[in-house]
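User: Can you help me understand a structure? I only have the sequence.
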Amino acid sequence: MEKQTVNASQESIWTRIFHSNWFIYILISPLFLVLFAYVVYPFYQTFTQSFAGDEPFLHYKKFFNLASPANLEALWTSIYISIISVLCCAIVGVTMAFLLERYNFPGRRILSILVLVPMALPPLVGVLSFSFLYGDSGIFPRIFQHLFGLDHVPFSLKGIWGVIVVHTFTMYTYFYLTASAAIKGLDPALEEAATSLGAGRIRVWTKVILPMLTPSIVASSLLVFMISMASYTAPLMFGVERTMTMQIYLSRTNGNLEMAATQSMILSFVSITFLVMMRWYQNRRNYQNLSKGISVHRSEVSSKKIKIAATIASFIGTLILILPILVLILISFSVDGAWKTQILPTDYTLDHYMALFTDERTWRPIWNSIQMGIVATFGNIIFGVAAAYAMVRLNFKGKTLLDILIMVPWALPGTVVAVNLIAAFSTENIFAFNQVLIGTFWILPLAYFIRHLPLVFRSTSASLVQLDQSIEEASRGLGANWWYTFRRIVIPLTFTGILAGTLLALVQSFGEFVASILIYSTSTIPLSVAIFQKLYAFKFGTACAYGVLQICLILVVLIISEKLSKGSAGTAI
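Assistant: Let's start by predicting it. Here is the structure, written out as tokens:
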């Protein structure tokens, strides 16, 4: 009896807490604290560092000095590459989604499987494979040189357009996934109605289909733009020396921290401006599909000529998609230093794969990436889900501020995140528990956590918006407290969205390179940096073996995502 009284008393206390007007602020205060400590404070430190020195605006004057235009050229080149990359990825991704979702043609089945292959290629590994295939010393240029007896290779992938080609191949899947999901829910009757009213195919596309795809296109555009602005390896490999990321890296490695901070602030301004513009465009009009959910019917291609063309195009597409992985696998068995001027490697070995699991020095970067990715993703789950619930379900003062703070990491390239952390945590402070985080294990998971928090947040938010709030109200009406309802009702019903964002964040952590290259230490070197180091030591076999293993890790994650979320992983975008 006494025990029951105690339990009832405890339950009454918790009930009063849950129904208190202050409970909302108790719930969201850790969110604001974490975002302030690891997003706002580092950003502020970089901002103040950019004005350091005797003259406050000295470094900004140097940046915009026309007599020394390196920084301005880098800024323009980065913006140009990013905008063109967004356009190319959008054209390829949306077109592929429409063709594969709306038409049956020879080769569609295999293309629908292989179209997601680039998702298994981290940006660094994608650059590596394209360099081996189409670069100055690539396999295909050498084949044509040998066939025609030329003194020099007749073509090669290089310069700005080489970077754009690699970006398009490695990132069009973001558009494909979101557009594919949107097209599946688009009622064909809308297009039929427009056609019956006299609209041509182009007008149907511009007035019906594309407007309905606006939310997915905007989300994908933001992601591709940010990744392109932070691109480092592709410009380096294809001879584009002046990009913002390259300039920041050079300033950082040369010890010019004030100029690195200035360059980071300008890059942040450009990225945030693009974010604001895209959000404005998305909110300018509200396009909603009010149909009754009629399933999409795939049209059969009946024309013999079109079938032949589709077969040829499918074959070429299959080769383009699968060759980057095949060449990585091939070179991963080659002997380091043996492949020089030959079209293909001549000497092969299993030593690289043996070393992955037997040599502690070789295995260490793999284990580091797994550990740091899991730690960062665990933090993403806790705070991403909490932030999503607060934004969708709760009303409180500061809601707009929380939305902005969550979206800021979405707009910050990895280079800027790294510079911000360097500025904030190179010395002891309260947010680092009076420790210097730079050079420790924890700085890299912190960078991954900041960069990938919006992925879990957006995916969970999308699931919560679709969940009828009356279910939670019914649970609480039957006597369940908030925590029980959240744990037993909300989490299970939004599990698909949470899982999709979680796995995408984990995949991104495994492949993260741009932030890692600025803040890693010799004891915490991640897999992506190890690949980069082996590449520049001309140990191509070891670098490709690392790349194949990284692809395998990502494929395992994607397969789990597909099985558990039933194909809805694209909602994480």
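Now, to help you interpret it: The longest strand covers residues 103-104. The domain at 29-48+349-573 is CATH 1.10.3720.10 (MetI-like fold). Let me know which part you'd like to focus on.
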